[in-house]
Amino acid sequence: MTQKLHIIGGGMAGSEAAWQAAQAGCPVVIHEMRPSVETFAHRTGNLAEMVCSNSFRSDDSEQNAVGLLHWEMRAAGGIIMATADRHRLPAGGALAVDRDPFSAAVTETLMNHPLIEVEYGEITELPNEGHWIIATGPLTSEGLGRAIQAETGTEALAFFDAIAPIVYADSINMDVAWMQSRYDKGETEEEQRAYLNCPMDKDDYEGFMDALLEADKAAFHEGETAGYFDGCLPIEVMAERGRETLRHGPMKPVGLTNSHKPQDKPYAVVQLRRDNALGTLYNIVGFQTKMKYGSQADVFRMIPGLEEARFARLGGIHRNTFINSPTLLDGQMRLRSRPNIRFAGQITGVEGYVESAAMGLLAGRMAAAEIAGRELLPPPPETALGALVTHITGGADAKTFQPMNVNFGLFPPVDGLKSGRRGRKDRYKAYTDRAKELWQGWLDAQEPVAAD
Q: What Pfam families does this protein's entry cite (predicted)?
């Protein structure tokens, strides 16, 4: 191929799109504004940097939709999943990764690919010619955001994400905290002890709730309005919904036994997950927050076991950007008004690292096929990737469109299976069996891609 594919944004989606297109023999240019143009959440100039959690969530490909998405991306030779597997950390049944080595490895692999080049600098206008993918993710720059708004006529593109704090492991009191995955989940002892747990009795919980609700919160900038994505709510926003909300959410005590006091059932439990391979950093699971920094330290040190906690990073809020894909994109993920431009990643209205990378995988393959003079049909909607792309390009209600994680509710039902909780295990297995067969068939039907 002589025509180049240009990708704006080197996050999860842009990195995966570049890899897939280059593996198909298509020359690629990644345009990345970092590190010359910084963002609130990024710390480095690496590609595929993880800015929030270090978890890719469940890795169960038989009973979980995101685990199925992992399976499909591995089957497609995805760089994000392959690199995550090489840098995985113990996390029970989840796939957590050592974030800095992960992004460094993705960067090195892409920059060493003979068909991929990286150009640094901000792009603020929509290109009129050539083949482009916009994969700028949740932190699309103001300039490019304005250009997208002008083209699409969209009044608002933003909502807000919140990031959780990270604690130094050696500052946690292990006479109070203990190591255990919920329900001892995991095949190895390391997996079964992947989470660090801090117990609360009723008085601890009530005092923590009072402090959380009264703490100073960061205000939005003038003229900055947006809603929150329900899957990433700040902990204080959850608390405002009712005093028991956290105890039935990220602080639920079920499936855990305090090894220091086995007879005492905690009223609530705060979990921390390892954030790096050395085990020196732990992030507080589900504790995204918009509290001001001073308040965060005071409130989080009320958690038993974290009284002397030192924070490697405190939490914060950042703007997230997405378009109304059901009205703006066609089935090839192209902007209807400018079909030389595709969108991929979180900006399309999917939520999560894996979902973002998955949309990059499809966009990269579709763009490479188009440049080669053929059309790649979307994958079947019964697959995880197919269900996601079907949702964002027409399956969702445009009037109420909001960012969506992959879930079995997006899949066409399997005939003859029971609905409800009792039949869930068999139903989910039927979903994943069907998806794997169809996904492999979709891959096999494509022309062979170039080797490394």
A: GIDA (PF01134)
